[in-house]
Amino acid sequence: QVQLVESGGGLVQAGGSLRLSCAASGRTFIRYAMGWFRQAPGKEREFVAAINWAGTTYHANSVKGRFTISRDNAKNTAYLQMNSLKPEDTAVYFCAARFGDTLFVISDEYGSWGQGTQVTVSS
Q1: Could you give the CA distance from residue 66 to residue 76 in angstroms, rounded to a whole number?
Q2: pLDDT attached to residue 31
Q3: How many Cα atoms occupy the beta-carbon half-sphere of 6 within 13 Å?
Q4: Which of 12, 52, 70, 111 would staple 16 via disulfide (CB 3.0–4.6 Å)?
Q5: What's phi and psi for 78, nearest 5 deg?
Q6: For the stretch 74-86, what's the b/e string if a residue is b when 16 or more beta carbons lie within 10 angstroms of its beta carbon?
Q7: Does pLDDT of 11 surpass 90?
């Protein structure tokens, strides 16, 4: 199993930036893919971005060009750099991990989840 802990959320004005971190521990000697999802109150969980061990990435159209997922395998940490934030980006952001290289956009494909970190974008 892989244990995940997110950090870096907070309150930011529209147009600002935040950098989320996801620290992994446990079976990190096995190659795994990581993803970011978000969920706003009353809405379904939404895929944001994913990255595999080799660094291949995929970003949702809603964040493409504004958000960038990355990882540092030596530190067992994934990141989500969020620029040009909009009020509609407000949500709880969750980090997830799965063993394998496929970049799934379906939450059920991920076996490990962090506790979530709140991101609030004000106008």
Answers
A1: 24
A2: 87
A3: 26
A4: 12
A5: -110, 155
A6: eebbbbbebeebe
A7: yes
- Both tokens of 88, joined, read 């509609």
Question: Do 69 and 103 contact (CB within 8 A), yes or no?
Answer: no
Residues 113-122: tens digit of each pLDDT: 999 999 999 9
The pairing of beta strand 10-13 with beta strand 112-113: unpaired
Rg for the chain (alpha carbons), in Å? 13
Residues 91 and 103 sit within 8 Å (Cβ to Cβ): no
CA distances from 81 to 6, 49, 53, 69, 72 (A): 13, 11, 18, 6, 13
Q: Six-digit token pair at 79?
A: 């990141």
Task: Return all residues near 82 (Cβ < 8 A) that are at least 6 apart.
Answer: 17, 18, 19, 20, 63, 66, 67, 89, 119
pLDDT of residue 76: 92
